[in-house]
Amino acid sequence: MLEFRDVSASIGIIGILRNLTFRVETAETLALIGRNGAGKTTLLRTIMGFTRMQAGEILFEGKSLGPVAPPKRPGLGIGYSPEDRRLFSAFTVEENILLPADAARLGPVETRRRLDRVYDILPELREMANRPAGNVSGGQGKMVALARALMLGTKLVMLDEPFQGLAPALAMRYADALRALRDSDRSITLVITESNPSLLRGFASRTLVIERGEVSEGSLDPERKTA
User: Which of 162, 167, 168, 176 would suit a FRET pair with 68, their CA atoms being 20 to 30 Å apart?
Assistant: First the structure.
């Protein structure tokens, strides 16, 4: 599904990712665990084409992402929810969710089908559909950002620190939504970054630890050292 081959990437003159080589399989739920500044966000942004690669290659479904311009990558079936949500406060919740469909120029029938799928996974958003996004709480905003990622993420969904700042009740609800997503489509691949490994215990099928821009196999056991 997704493969890194000796990938190095930098921000300006600062090297962030160093010779990463790993593979994420179809239908896998991968937890990418690391401290703040370890390179988690940069890794996701490199997949999306927002961060410049210095070396290596990223393959998606066996084809190099290098020739694919960043605005075209979501059209491959890749959904991305950044840590900061990036909602448009003057738009309604539903208008925010629909933005990727508009950008990808999906037809009305396909857009409606995908929106219904989103509301099946996150039914509370249907009730909030006409509310201005600027009036939702931080936790609700995370749900909206997830829904927006799901509009194009039909194959791969990447979530950057989705549980950060969530109250326990909302964190449980978010986890329930991810389980509903996985149950509704067994072929979908999830990559979730977190600094707290315990939040993904019992959910992720595999763990990678990232430290100083390098990855290694890890554990979600909080008693074991992770990066």
Answer: 162
Q: What is the mean pLDDT of residues 145-164?
A: 95
CATH number at residue 70: 3.40.50.300
The tally of domains found in the chain comes to: 1
Nearest to 87 by CA among 167, 148, 151, 163: 148
Q: What are the beta bridge partners of residue 8?
A: 55
CA distance 98 to 26: 26
DSSP β-ladder status, 156-160 and 78-81: parallel
pTM for this model (two decimals): 0.90
pLDDT of residue 221: 61
- For every residue of 139-200, DSSP letters joined together read HHHHHHHHHHHHHH-SSEEEEESTTTT--HHHHHHHHHHHHHHHHH-TT-EEEEEES-GGGG
Expressed as residue numbers, the domain containing 93 is: 2-217
